Amino acid sequence: MDKLKIRGGCTLEGEIRVSGAKNAALPILCAALLTERTLSLTNVPRLMDVRTMTKLLAQMGVEVSAKDDRVELRAAKLTNPEAPYEMVKTMRASVLVLGPLLARAGRARVSLPGGCAIGSRPVDQHLKGLQAMGATIAVEHGYMEARAERLRGARIVMDMVTVTGTENLMLAATLADGTTLIENAAREPEVVDLAHCLAAMGAKIEGAGSDAIRVEGVRALRGAEYRVMPDRIETGTYLAAVAATGGKVKLRDAAPATLDVTLEKLREAGATIRAGDNHIEIEADGRPHSVSVRTAPYPGFATDMQAQFMALAAIGDGTAVITETIFENRFMHALELQRLGAEIAIQGNSAVVSGVPRLQGATVMATDLRASAGLVIAGLIADGETVVDRIYHLDRGYEALETKLGALGARIERLK
Ligand code: UD1
Predict the structure, then answer these.
(1) Measured in angstroms, how far is the CA atom of residue 401 from the centroid of ligand 1?
(2) What angle, rounded to 10 degrees, do the helices at 232-245 and 369-381 form?
(3) What's the pLDDT tens digit per position in 16-73?
(4) pLDDT for 120 beyond 90
(5) What is the sign of the dihedral through the CA atoms of 161, 163, 168 and 173?
(6) What angle do CA 372, 323, 312 make, to 5 degrees?
(7) Is the pLDDT of residue 182 over 70?
């Protein structure tokens, strides 16, 4: 299993490009299931999760070709509308095929995701919405067996804000008979990006980005060309790294408008930030101020940035309280950060982080995607050598992480 070896203590300087957003690319890839015509995507990040999704789609009969950041998909026929356990267990977002398969093929067989390292993460809201649209869904032998003649429009009030839940229903509603209203919808920029792609394919969607999305079903969708939005979590991760190490970095091809709270919190930590339309420059120097955060659905502070901010708080000049409200059990990185000398006390869903002037390098283990990113940031600031084990988590969601950090002057190397 690959590891990352990091020698801490360098400031980061230079310029790198932000990749396309993983969490936008995954639902957008699934949109290809809705049409027999070709969907051509660019700015698709080269990531393990994207490869898993294209492999899954290919198994269903979708023709997929990928070169550099371009992926072309053509679902002329869906021969096998099934998502097997082996795939869903490695990537929960596989459940995003459920809505489009039902809408286009009238049936789907998708494995239940099961437990996951960051909490139970059920899919009841996805099912509730599809049932309201007329689907019958039975759970048999660990699989959701779903059927529908043709989905019909419905008014759906989500019990809680769910990103992939909103996306699944939006995908399904594009081909339903009549109008679907999704209330208490997720407002994440990735939901908006999916809506833009679907609109380019001929879908009729209003209100994406607000908590009420209205989809007027159409008979068929057409092919389209679409460019995936920049990854705001990747952007935020590099910004947090610079705020921690100090230095001066420019991130190109970013979407600053999707990062309001993150930028505000980094400024609170003492960083100077200048944002243009599609680039962000950050400059930081000296020890960061301690900054408290509380995760919340967009436009609140992203749970996917929580671990990176905990690493930053670990060397802050005071005490920070980090509260996680989206996922239970998303503090595993705290224990690993403690191994590097961080002072963190967990109290329920809050972590009280008393900043220390220095961390010390050690071997730590990545437990999930964003936890790993937090450990890499900690390794960049720790004295001596840090080895981050199990980085397959990082490979799921960060394109060329060690190359990008290396370009900024970090001493980081992959051990095979
Ligand atoms: C997405 C993101 C993930 C991010 C998360 C929260 C993708 C591919 N992944 O995950 O990176 O961390 O949003 O911003 O976009 N819930 C239920 N029932 C459901 C669905 C969700 O109880 O049917 C709960 C979850 O357990 C969780 C909360 O709702 O506590 C939010 O989860 P959700 O927004 O669905 O996360 P994902 O879409 O899986």
Answers:
(1) 24
(2) 20
(3) 999 999 999 999 999 999 999 999 999 999 999 999 999 999 999 999 999 999 999 9
(4) no
(5) positive
(6) 45
(7) yes
Two tokens, residue 25: 């690319």
Residue 30 a catalytic site member: no
Q: How far apart are CA 231 and CA 268, in angstroms?
A: 22
Q: CA 326 to CA 161: how far, in whole Å?
A: 9
Give the angle 44-47-52 at the CA atoms, nearest 5°: 100
How many beta carbons lie within 10 A of that of residue 67, not counting itself?
A: 7
Residue closest by Cα to atom 5 of ligand 1: 163
What integer pLDDT is reported at residue 339 of this predicted model? 96
* Ligand 1 in reach of 125 Cβ (< 6 A): yes
What mean pLDDT is predicted for residues 142-157? 95
Q: Is the CB of 122 under 6 A from ligand 1?
A: yes
Identify which of 90, 163, 170 to mutate to test ligand 1's pocket (most ligand atoms within 8 A of the CB): 163
In short, whether 93's Cβ falls inside 6 Å of ligand 1 is: yes
- Give the Å distance between the CA of 50 and the centre of ligand 1: 18
What b-and-e string marks burial along 184-220, b requiring 16 or more CB atoms within 10 Å of the CB?
A: bbbbbbbbbbbbbbbbbbbbebebbbeeebbbebbee
Q: Does residue 117 surpass a pLDDT of 60?
A: no
CA dihedral 242, 243, 244, 248 (to 10 degrees): 40
Distances (CA, A) of 148 to 56, 99, 137, 152, 205: 22, 11, 9, 9, 22
Take atom 21 of ligand 1 and give the residue whose Cα is closest. Answer: 162
Q: For residue 156, what pLDDT is reported?
A: 98
CA of 14 to the centre of ligand 1 (A): 34
What residue type is 34 in one-letter code? L
Question: Is there an atom of ligand 1 within 6 Å of 114 CB?
Answer: no
Atom number, ligand 1, closest to the C-alpha of residue 297: 14
Range with the poorest average pLDDT among 119-123, 263-267, 303-307? 119-123
| Of 380, 286, 292, 293, the residue nearest 340 (C-alpha) | 380
- CA distance to 55, 234, 377, 380, per residue, from 5 (Å): 30, 20, 12, 10
> What is the H or E stretch that residue 56 is in?
helix 48-59
Give the tens place of pLDDT for each residue, 317-355.
999 999 999 998 899 999 999 999 999 999 999 999 999
